[in-house]
Each structure stands twice: as C-alpha cells, then as structure tokens.
Q: What sequence folds into this?
C-alpha cells in the first residue's frame, strides 16, 4: 500500500461513459469563469444577502461539503462522476474546496486567476493528452508550456510577479502528477501551488 492508484481511462470509469466524461470536462472548463464571477459580482451578491465576501465563499464551501457528506453517507454517484467516487470525496468536491481556499487565502487577481485556470484548463489538457497515448515526458513538457502561458498572461494582465509565474507553472504541472487514493488531483493541483504562493507572498508583496 503506497497510497498511489493506477492510471485508468477516465471514459471507462465515468458514469455515462463518453457523455459523462464530456460533462466532467465541461464542468472543468466552466470553472474558468469563477474568478470573473468572484471579482465582478462577489461583493454585490455578498452585500445583497448581508454577508462579507469571505463569509459568502465560506458559506458556499460549507454547503458543498455538507452535500458531499450526505452523498457519501448514501453512497451514490451521479451522471458524470466516476464509479469509485461512491465511496470517497469526489473530484468536484475537491475542486470546490481548492477554489474556495484560493478565494479565502489569496483573494487577488494576480494569484486567483492563474491558480484556478491552471486547474480548470491544465488538468483536462493533461488528462486528454494521456488518454490519446502521449508519452509521459511529452505530457509534462506540453502541459508545462501551456501552464506557463497562463501564468505569463496573469503577469501581463494582473501583475503576477514574473519570477513566481516562472516557478509556479512547473509546480502546477507536478502537483497534478501524484495518483493518491483519496485525494483527487483537483485538490493537489490547487492546494500545493497555493501553499507555495502563500509562503512566497511575503517576498512578493502583492497582497500588502
């Protein structure tokens, strides 16, 4: 028991087969809009219901975690989930936790955009490259270049420190690689880079 799981074809394990797989990919890509919604409308929505923005994010997280707990207690999966998620926290729930932690701990466009886009775009890219049979070394190279492009756009548009962009792109790639039994890469691909961002932030001074 080393805590690692074997790579499998995501279509074979998805409830609904290819259609379920495509739904999962669509949800992943749809997460790319979350930073826009947060920065453009978050404060307005929070004010409208009498909460702070942090309280709104925390409330959504608590609802998501409660719903996931109920799903696990009943032991069922829904269309698009993978069959093994009946007995463990789902990839969607891990993604929600990761994104929520970004908004709570690094609520600035310089960090939130590249961290979340690295997950929403980078993870499906790597998954599809593997599914097409690309060699692991080439998957690492192509995905690192794609993630670097995301971080460089964040540097140009939102003032992400260039040195952090150059460092975090390969870290995001590497954070997707572990095949852990109970922790989905939707979590590791956000939480590991987020932890590094928070450690390096005193040197960057973006959130001062």
A:
């Amino acid at each position: 028991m080393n805590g690692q799981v074997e790579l499998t074809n995501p279509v074979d394990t998805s409830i609904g087969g290819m259609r379920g797989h495509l739904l999962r990919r669509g949800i992943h890509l749809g997460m790319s809009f979350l930073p826009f919604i947060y920065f453009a409308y978050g404060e307005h929505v929070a004010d409208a219901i009498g909460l702070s923005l942090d309280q709104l994010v925390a409330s959504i997280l608590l609802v998501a975690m409660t719903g996931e707990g109920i799903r696990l207690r009943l032991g069922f999966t829904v269309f698009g989930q993978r069959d093994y998620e009946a007995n463990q926290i789902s990839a969607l729930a891990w993604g929600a936790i990761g994104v929520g932690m970004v908004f709570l701990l690094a609520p600035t466009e310089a960090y939130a955009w590249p961290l979340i886009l690295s997950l929403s775009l980078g993870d499906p890219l790597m998954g599809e490259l593997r599914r097409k049979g690309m060699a692991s070394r080439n998957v690492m190279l192509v995905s690192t270049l794609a993630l670097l492009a995301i971080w460089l756009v964040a540097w140009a548009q939102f003032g992400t420190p260039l040195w952090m962009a150059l460092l975090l792109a390969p870290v995001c790639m590497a954070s997707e690689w572990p095949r852990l039994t109970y922790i989905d890469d939707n979590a590791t691909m956000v939480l590991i880079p987020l932890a590094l961002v928070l450690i390096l932030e005193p040197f960057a001074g973006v959130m001062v």
Residues 73 and 87 are 9 Å apart (CA to CA). Residues 109-131 form the longest helix (23 residues).
